[in-house]
Design brief:
alpha/beta; FAD/NAD(P)-binding domain; D-Amino Acid Oxidase, Chain A, domain 2; eight-stranded mixed β-sheet; about 30% helix; about 25% strand; binds flavin-adenine dinucleotide
């Protein structure tokens, strides 16, 4: 498509990464964000790039999509660092999925057998082997699974990089601009913004995370069935001699070390609508789950608590692709996987928008799968 212009509604990791890939190809892109870019779920996330450790039974298609995104993440990160001048702390140490008691070990073994059957790159480690890798784990742990290809990135640095790269390459970002709705007019689509003139483009991308279904004017069959799923998460400061080098996951919590010494500890998963309050119960459950695996965290300085709203779709799979009306493109519903999936979502969406063709990679994640059902 020549002289294409695209407006992206929502400046989270999904909207920004699609915008970056499009401006990189020399296309005209405007991102419209109701607050500050990168201030919602994408900032709060832990930054795990976890395919093997995160994706459960009966989600094999999602697993393969995550694996594809993992495959391209190193190059995605390098190009972003080069376009923005910002290093994104891509860490390739792998992830330990830890069983802290016998019951947890039974569940872990069941998961491991499934992972092996499906050729996940995972390895069973004994208690001793696990403690050799991470001496600050609880001496009571029973065993672990090492997911050697599940990595992590500092999502806040990725967001900064995306914002900088888009600006460096001539894209436009409008902040503090709430999109009220879209109106189709001829071949174009007008995006109506509160208190400002509309932005007109060939294609509007709905990347408004948990708020995606609230944009007025989306034709009924295309309204994405997305809801907010609340997550509370903590940030601690690792102080020597305490140290963690791998992402560590258990049944109730995970710990994600950053190269600057922060340790991200998450997260609750709560069906509370658009409620973003931090609660004592949320903090307690996260800390308890993390403490069972790594008791030493209780001595670490608490730097902060945060809350984000994951965009969860009805089937918990992403919703990416052209809508019934091809002036509208959907990129939402990334739920617990928006950081890992940002790379494949951005590359495939940019290709699709530039060519006008559907992405085969997102075939079964197309918004059209909901079009025949009531929302
Ligand atoms: C606690 C927690 C931990 C997580 N950990 C991980 C992890 O380790 N790995 C991983 O892969 N994923 C993780 N996730 C999931 C990940 O954060 C999300 O899937 C991802 O951030 C979704 O990105 P997004 O751009 O769709 O949404 P958001 O980041 O929420 O961005 C949507 C943007 O749209 C804007 N917007 C909304 N309505 C409008 C409007 N009307 N007009 C203009 N702008 C609008 C919002 O202000 C917002 O900035 C985690 C999430 C949480 C909450």
């Amino acid at each position: 498509m020549k002289n294409l212009s695209t407006v992206v509604i929502g400046g989270g990791i999904i909207g920004l990464s699609i915008a970056w890939r499009l401006v990189r190809e020399g296309h005209q892109v405007t991102v419209v964000e109701k607050g500050k870019v990168g201030a919602e779920a994408s900032r709060v996330a832990a930054g795990m790039l976890a395919a093997s450790a995160e994706v459960g039974f009966e989600e094999l298609e999602l697993y393969h999509l995550c694996r594809e995104s993992l495959r391209i993440w190193p190059e995605f990160a390098r190009e972003l660092e080069s376009d923005s001048g910002i290093q994104v702390d891509y860490r390739s140490n792998g992830t330990l999925i830890v069983a802290h008691d016998a019951d947890a070990a039974t569940a872990l073994k069941r998961g491991f057998d499934f992972q092996k059957e499906n050729h996940y790159p995972v390895e069973w480690l004994s208690r001793e082997e696990t403690l050799d890798l991470e001496p600050f784990l609880s001496p009571r742990i029973v065993a672990s699974v090492f997911a050697s290809e599940d990595h992590a990135v500092d999502n806040r640095l990725v967001l900064k990089g995306l914002q900088r790269a888009i600006s460096n390459l001539g894209g436009q970002i409008i902040e503090e601009a709430e999109v009220l709705g879209i109106v189709f007019s001829g071949d174009m689509v007008d995006v109506q913004i509160e208190g400002r003139p509309p932005v007109t483009a060939n294609v509007a991308v709905i990347a408004a995370g948990a708020w995606s279904r609230q944009i007025a004017g989306i034709p009924t069959p295309d309204v994405p069935p997305v809801r907010p799923v609340k997550g509370q998460i903590l940030e601690l400061k690792m102080d020597r001699p305490f140290e963690l080098n791998h992402v560590v996951r258990g049944r109730k919590a995970y710990l994600v070390p950053r190269s600057d010494g922060r340790l991200i500890v998450g997260a609750t998963s709560e069906e509370m609508g658009f409620d973003k309050r931090m609660t004592a119960g949320g903090v307690f459950s996260v800390l308890e789950g993390a403490w069972e695996m790594v008791p030493g965290i209780l001595d670490l300085e608490l730097l902060g608590i945060d809350v984000g709203l994951r965009p969860g779709s009805r089937d918990h799979q992403p919703i990416v692709g052209y809508c019934m009306d091809r002036r509208l493109y959907m990129a939402t519903g990334h739920y617990r996987h928006g950081v890992i999936l940002s790379a494949v979502t951005a590359l495939e969406s940019a290709k699709s928008i530039l060519s006008g063709k559907d992405s085969p990679v997102f075939g079964q994640f197309s918004p059209k799968r909901f079009a025949r059902h009531e929302i």
